[in-house]
Amino acid sequence: MHFKRVTLLAGHYGSGKTNIAVNLAEMLAAQEKNVAIADLDIVNPYYRTLDSKERLDHAGIRMIVSRFANSNVDIPAMPQDMYAVVDDLSLHCIVDVGGDDRGALALGRLAPKLREEADYDMFLVVNRFRPLTPDAQSVLEVVQEIELAAGLKFTGIINNSNLGAETTEETVLSSIEFGKQCSQLAGLPLVATGVEESLAESLKGKVPGILPLKLQKRPV
Amino acid sequence: MAEKVLMKGNEAIAEAAIQAGCRHYFGYPITPQTEIAAYMAKRMPKIGGTFLQAESEIAAINMVYGVSSAGKRVMTSSSSPGISLKGEGISYLAGTDLPCVIVNAQRGGPGLGGIQPSQSDYFQATRGGGHGDYHILVLAPSSVQEMAELTIKAFDLADQYLMPAMILADGTTGQMMEPVSFDFEIKEPPAKPWATTGTKMQRPHNIANSLYLDPEKLERINIERFKRYEIIKEKEQLAEEYLVDDADIVIAAFGISARIAKNAVDEARALGIKAGLIRPITLWPFPDKVFKKAAEHAKRFISVELSMGQMIEDVKLATECKVPVSLCYRVGGMIPTPDQVLEAIKEAAKEVM
Fold it and tell me: Which of B97, B141, B326, B327 lies deepest, with the highest CB count within 10 Å?
C-alpha cells in the first residue's frame, strides 16, 4: 500500500476503524522510520488504539493519545500532542478518528493545515453488516455528514464488511458488490478490502485490494 | 432466516425495542449505554416515534410514567448512577402497576465510580431499587443476541404482569459487538383498558396513581400485588444449565460473568473436575428451583460476580444453605479471567474431594 504522509480513517462507529488504523500503522512502520498513530476518538471511551500498546511499541510506533484514554475520565479529551500530526512534517501518521460526524468534528482543528499541505488521504471504513449502513445509499449519507463535520473530503473507501467472530469467506465475498456500489455512488476509489488474517490466504485474488488484518482483542 | 447484522449490545436492545413496538424512548446520556440513546435518536424520527433527551434521568423516568399510563410501550435506559436517580420514578411505576422497560448497563460504583463494567447493582435491581414493598422483573442477557431477545421478552412480561421490567446488562455486554439475528415473532401487546386515553364520555375516568388516602385499601393493594409476584415466581423463572447434572462444583454466574465462568467450567472438566454452571437469566424472579435441584448433588457452589458478593445471598437462600457457597469476584470495573475462576474451582475441588 502506498501511503501519503497522513492517512485519516473515518466512518460509522463500530465499522472497524481502530483495528484498521493499528494494522496500517504497522504496515507504514515497515516502510518509514518516523511513524505515529494518532487516536482522535472523542466519542467512545472503550476500545481504543491504546489496547494495542504492546504491538505498537514493538513496531516502534509513537502513540499520540489522550492521557485519559482507557481510564475512568469520561470526557472527549484530545491528545496534548495532537498538533504533531500537522506541525511535524517528518512524521508519517495514521489517524484514528471517532465514529460518525460527531467523531469527525475533532478533525476540524487539523483540517486547514492538512488541506494546505495536501499530502493526506481520508479513507471511509464501511461494514455492510452494521445496522445503519446496510447499503450504498446509507453509506453516502455517512460520507456527506462526516465530510461536513471534518471540513475534509474523503479520498477512498475501505470495505471492512464482517460479522465479527462469525465471519467466513462467504461473508466477505457477499460484500464485494456492496463495496463497488459504495465506490460508484460516492465517486471514491475502493482502496482496500479488510479481511481477518486467517481468511486472507483463501480469499487472495477473490477480493479487490485485500488487506489482511490482525485483530486487536481485549483480554476477555 | 433474516440476515445477521453486527451490533453492539446496546444497539441490539434499541433495535429490539423498536421491533417490539416501542415508539417512545426517553433518556439521558451516560457511559456505557449512550449507544441506546444514539440509536433511538437516529431511528425514532424515521418511524414516527419519539426520541427525547430529557433534562435529567428523573425527568426521563417520569416521561416513561406518562406514556405507560397512556397504554403505549415505552423504554428508558441509563447506567448505575443514573438508575439511582430514576429510583423514585421506578417505585411510582411499580406502585401504579404500570409496564415499562428500563435498561441498566451497569458500571463500577458506588457513587460516580467508573465507566467500566460491573454487576454491583444486583441488590438494587432485584430488591426493587426504590422505596416501598415491590419488585420489578429483572432479566440478565449474556450475549448480544440475548440483549435483543430479552428486550422483547421484557416488554411482553411487563405488559402481562403490569410492572416495570429491567434489562440488567453491564458495560461489556453493552459495548461488545456480535452478530445478531432479528428473527422474532412479535406478539400483539394485550388490551389496556386501564389506560388514560380519554373517556369519550363512555366510561368512568381511568386514573394512573400510586397515592391511596385509605390505608386499608393500600394494604389490600399491596397484598394483591404480592400474590401476583408469587405467580411470577412460580411461572417465569429462567436459567441456563450447563453440565450441572453430575456436577460436584456448581458455579452461579449471570451476564458477562457467566461467559467467563463457562470457559473455566470447560477447562475444569478437561482436568477431570466435575464442574457445572447455572446461569440465571431472570434475576427476579430468581431461578431457585434449579438451584434447589443442583443442591441435591453438588458439594460446593461458587458465585462468580462483578460485585463484592450480592447474588451469593440468593444462592444461599435458594439452596437453604445446605451446601457451602463461596465467592469469586472482581470489582471496580475489573473482570475476572477464566484462569481466576478455574483457580477458584480447583480450590473448591481440593476441599470437597
Answer: B141
